[in-house]
Amino acid sequence: MNKHLQLENYIRIHPSGIGKVVDFDSKVDRLYYFDFTTANTELTTDDIEDTGRFSAWVTKKLGENNCRYGVGGYMEHRTIYSRSEHFNTADEPRRLHLGVDIWACAGTPVYAPLSGSIHSFRDNDNHGDYGPTIILQHDLDGLELYSLYGHLSRVDLAGLQVGAKIERGQKLGSFGNADENGHWPPHLHFQLMFDMEGMTGDYPGVAKFSEKDKWLKNIPDPNLILRFPVL
Predict the structure, then answer these.
(1) Calculated CA dihedral for residues 103, 22, 110, 8, nearest 10 degrees
(2) Residue 61 maps to which CATH number?
(3) Which residues pair with 188 in a beta bridge?
(4) Is residue 231 part of a domain?
(5) What are the E-state strand segments in 141-211?
(6) pLDDT, tens digit, 9 for 90 and up, residues 36-50
(7) How many folded domains does the chain comprise?
């Protein structure tokens, strides 16, 4: 059985073993689905390159639609990454978004949806990067899974220890502000990986679109854990 099917089976068998990542309540909350592909003609290049304007646009869309959270991004071919040289590799720019972004106010709490331990953490302090990042390691009946939480607050890294146990439902931190989260509108980058490939404190969240099939093998759909309503 491949790892994707193993994960799906674990979730099916242990539905109560999966906790929340944010305080989303499907009974009262609505989600706004953001699209950052070329189909989004509302955002101009100037909007995207100015963090304040970009943040105001995100806040406006959430407010207009009476949504506490916005979501989207898994395997999305994004155009917004031209704002950062961090993604502009010489042979092919990185535009394929590998995780799910959850957009909300700075300070929004983030929780561990699965029990596990701290694999690694780091402040990836580059323009357009993750900023403060925590990666957890989970053993799901023999299936090794990693979960990544990017764009947190710097205070969330204080006192962490690699190998420390984390319980399902434990608060990991909160959404960082633009001054500490890689200069983005406040949001959480949530991503799952089967293999960390020897990396610590960081793992690609944006990749070359031409390599999509490769990344799909190692990165399952985060909504298996999030369980957000789909369009």
Answers:
(1) -110
(2) 2.70.70.10
(3) 102
(4) no
(5) 143-150, 165-166, 171-174, 187-193, 206-207
(6) 988 888 988 888 889
(7) 1
Query: Residue 155: pLDDT above 80?
Result: yes
User: What three-state secondary structure class fits 155?
Assistant: helix
pLDDT (0 to 100) of residue 84: 46
d(CA 96, CA 99): 9
The tens digit of pLDDT for each residue in 4-34 reads 999 999 999 999 999 999 999 999 999 999 9
Answer yes or no: are the C-beta atoms of 140 and 113 closer than 8 Å. no
Burial class from Cβ neighbours inside 10 Å (0-12, 13-18, 19+) for residue 210 reads exposed
Q: Could you tell me the CA-to-CA distances from 124 to 98, 180, 182, 203 in Å, in that order? A: 17, 10, 8, 10
- Do residues 8 and 224 lie in contact, with contact meaning Cβ atoms separated by under 8 Å? yes
Residue 65 lies in a domain: yes
Q: How far apart are CA 198 and CA 28, in angstroms?
A: 41
Q: Residue 200 falls within a domain, yes or no?
A: yes
Rounded to whole angstroms, the Cα distance separating 144 from 7 reads: 9
Quote the CA–CA distance of 175 and 181 in Å, as a whole number.
8
- Host domain of residue 159: 3-13+20-226
Q: Does 141 fall in a domain?
A: yes
